[in-house]
Amino acid sequence: MVSDPDAWELYCRALRQFWQSMASDNSEAKDLCRRAIKLDAEFAAPHALLSRTYFYEVISARSEDPARSVGKGVEHANRALQIDRRDEVGYTVLGYNLAYAQRFVEAFQAIEMGLAINPSSSGLYNARATIAALAPDGDLEQAREDEWLALRLSPNDPIAWTFHATLGLIELVDEESGSVDAAIECLRKAYLYPNADWGVDFFLAVARLIQGRNETAVRHARKAKVTLGHLTGADVDIAFGGLLARPPRFKMYAEQVLKLADEPESE
Predict the structure, then answer these.
(1) pLDDT for position 267
(2) Helix axis angle, 214-228 to 198-211, nearest 10°
(3) In the 8-state DSSP scheme, what is residue 101?
(4) Confidence bin at 158 (pLDDT 50/70/90)
(5) 0.90 exceeded by pTM
(6) At what angle do helices 248-262 and 214-228 cross, to 10 degrees?
(7) φ, ψ at 101 (rounded to 5°)
(8) What sign results for the dihedral spanned by CA atoms 207, 209, 214, 217?
(9) What's the confidence (pLDDT) of residue 4?
(10) Best exposed site among 35, 133, 217, 240 by fewest CB in 10 Å?
(11) Mean per-residue pLDDT for 131-152?
């Protein structure tokens, strides 16, 4: 519960700012969260949102120190849960940050604790699917089911683009039952959202390369680089390293996309 109405207002402004700029810059959302916490130290929600901003710094390859960002993300998620043990968003963001710390067992445990509180949380199913895709031995079929369930539960979610994007990634990396056509369909849906990040273009480039549509792949690769401002192997490894450990074919095409992004445009 929040005791200070000004803290609540600051948090609402932070949340709105985050949804609008999550793919580019979360500095204003962070500042608003910190101001809310200063007014009400026992308000869990801004801690959970701060944790989410740190996670997105990493997954969007905008963190100067990914290990520190993940550490801060875990710290604020734990603080949110210390204040309110029934805060499902706290469990969601704790799971994400633990996954990027390579602590997958603990990440899944956090998500299961959240689902025990709210078994109808689209955010928790989205998180479990994402973590499964990143984990070396994650169950991709379960991840696929989780993501479709998240979409059914919250089709108009502010971050529904991440539901579609994760479905697309699962289709790309699942050598047994994945479909490139299905991946493209999901990624194109994610692409239509104004707050989608550079990763959607990057993985559309991978999918188009697999199809042999090189010109389209080049266009998406260049757009990913323009959106991020840079595009290197380190960026991809930080944001999606777990996926690169999946099928060898996927890593090969990802490396080709990096080269395409650096090719000069023909006059």
Answers:
(1) 46
(2) 160
(3) T
(4) confident
(5) yes
(6) 70
(7) -90, 5
(8) positive
(9) 85
(10) 35
(11) 95
Contacts of 55 (CB under 8 A, 6+ apart): 69, 70, 73, 93, 96, 97, 100
CB 187 within 8 A of CB 223: no
SS3 176: coil
User: Sign of dihedral through CA atoms 80, 85, 88, 93?
Assistant: positive
Q: How far is CA 164 from CA 69, 84, 106, 196, in A?
A: 25, 30, 25, 10
Q: d(Cα 234, Cα 222) in Å, to the nearest integer? A: 17
Query: Tokens 């793919």 correspond to what residue?
Result: 23
Q: How far apart are CA 151 and CA 154, in angstroms?
A: 5
Residue-wise pLDDT tens digits, 67-83:
999 999 999 999 999 99
- For the chain, the C-alpha Rg in angstroms (whole number) is 18
Which pLDDT belongs to residue 145?
Answer: 97
Whether 163 has a pLDDT exceeding 60, the answer reads yes
DSSP 266: P
- Short-list 27, 79, 32, CA closest to 53: 27
> Dihedral of the CA atoms 153, 58, 188, 248 (nearest 10)?
-110
Q: Name residues whose C-beta falls within 8 Å of residue 191's C-beta, 6 or more positions apart in sequence.
A: 200, 201, 204
* Other beta carbons within 10 Å of 108: 19
